[in-house]
Design goal:
By secondary structure, the chain is an alpha/beta fold. The chain has helices at about 15-25, 40-45, 65-75, 130-135, 160-170, 190-200, 300-315, and strands at about 1-10, 30-35, 50, 60, 80-85, 85-90, 100, 105-115, 120-125, 140, 155-160, 175-180, 205-210, 215-220, 225-230, 235-240, 245, 250-255, 270, 285, 290. The chain binds flavin-adenine dinucleotide (FAD).
Length: about 325
């Protein structure tokens, strides 16, 4: 079923969320799509606990608090959020509207498209080891879709952040064994999670190996058999494992936006400063993704751009209407 909407907003970062509000004030319905499973863009992915001091009338708030407040502010406008899916296709139609499709197959007929894609889609940082691409999604995973898939397996979890620790704690009880492997003894994850996993090593099922370099993978006919680890003092050890889960964090990538026929710089989209419209009429770009003389990558600037883009979208949909 194709969803009819006034605007598809590509990206649920702070600017994409505020765009819902500005469109809503003008009576326009928005559908917001984000590749991440949570709204919030960089504020949630990169700095949920960092204080922000430059939002007018809010002397200080964290990244997470800003997103919570924005979500509350857009509640009256009933925007539909489509999370965990990337916008892959945007195609202009003869009637001036746009066909939009996501990586999950959700399809829209949108009167306008507003790109609020920030620095692009966040993609998992990959394991740079020989044979890693061939084992991806069979024995090497960057996300967990179905935890039961890992029951009874010998697992290696790579990383030292929240995702690595949270998944290690979650998957260990049903696994045959689980080894968390980290390049140092300094973890970025919440101290409570590190303490909990250390406590779990007492069961004999869980191990933590620190100070290692990138592991080597050993597979036969597409089946992973073992990994070898080299500690930073040169010691080699072999670990028999069935699956490796890699949580090295996320890196932004412009992704499919590059294929939509837009006037691009390296990783940004050129817009005018009256409407924040791209070279394609009806497609607007706001927030970190756009470029114009004097551009500053600030949330405040993105909010201003969202206001003007909303008026321009209204004019595009209903020309001349007061
Ligand atoms: P983003 O926050 O980057 O969100 C874009 C979203 O679009 C992402 O969730 C991404 O997954 C999604 N996306 C991209 N492409 C697609 C696609 N094809 N399909 C689906 N989804 C897609 N600014 C301030 O004003 N004050 C500060 O104090 C401040 N501190 C900062 C601290 C740090 C450490 C960093 C890194 C930045 C800081 N910034 C600050 C900058 C601010 O975070 C950005 O300006 C802001 O996040 C831009 O918002 P956005 O909505 O344009 O993009």
């Amino acid at each position: 079923m194709t969803i009819q909407t006034d605007a598809v907003i590509v990206g649920a970062g702070p600017c994409g969320l505020f765009q819902v509000f500005e469109l809503g004030l003008l009576g326009l319905q928005a559908d917001v799509v984000d590749s991440m499973s949570m709204a919030g863009g960089q504020c949630i992915e990169l700095y949920p606990d960092k204080p922000i001091y430059d939002i007018p009338a809010v002397p200080v708030c964290t990244g997470e608090e800003l997103i919570e407040q924005l979500m509350k502010q857009i509640e009256p406008f009933d925007a539909r959020l489509h999370l965990g899916q990337e916008v892959t296709d945007v195609k202009p139609q003869d009637d001036g509207s746009f066909f939009v499709r996501t990586s999950k197959g959700t399809e829209f007929n949108a009167k306008t498209v507003i790109i609020a894609g920030g620095v692009g889609c966040f993609q998992p940082r990959v394991l740079r080891a020989e044979g890693a691409p061939e084992l991806a999604d069979s024995h090497l995973f960057y996300r967990v879709k179905d935890p039961s898939r890992f029951a009874g397996k010998r697992l290696a979890v790579l990383g030292g952040g929240d995702s690595a620790l949270d998944w290690a704690i979650e998957l260990a009880p049903a696994s045959e064994s689980l080894t968390l492997i980290h390049r140092s003894d300094q973890f970025r994850a919440a101290p409570a999670s590190v303490a909990k996993l250390r406590e779990m090593t007492g069961t004999g099922k869980v191990r933590i190996i620190e100070h290692t370099t990138v592991p080597e993978l050993h597979a036969t006919d597409g089946t992973l058999e073992a990994i070898t680890l080299k500690t930073t003092d040169g010691e080699l050890s072999r670990l028999e494992v069935d699956d490796v889960l890699v949580f090295y964090g996320l890196a932004p990538k412009l992704g499919p936006i590059a294929n939509w026929g837009l006037d691009l710089n390296r990783k940004t989209v050129n817009v005018d400063t009256e409407k924040f419209q791209t070279n394609v009429p009806g497609i607007f770009a706001i927030g970190d993704i756009n470029e114009y003389p004097g551009k500053k990558k600030l949330i405040l600037s993105g909010f201003h751009e969202a206001a003007l883009a909303a008026f321009a979208a209204k004019e595009y949909i209903e020309p001349g209407k007061k």
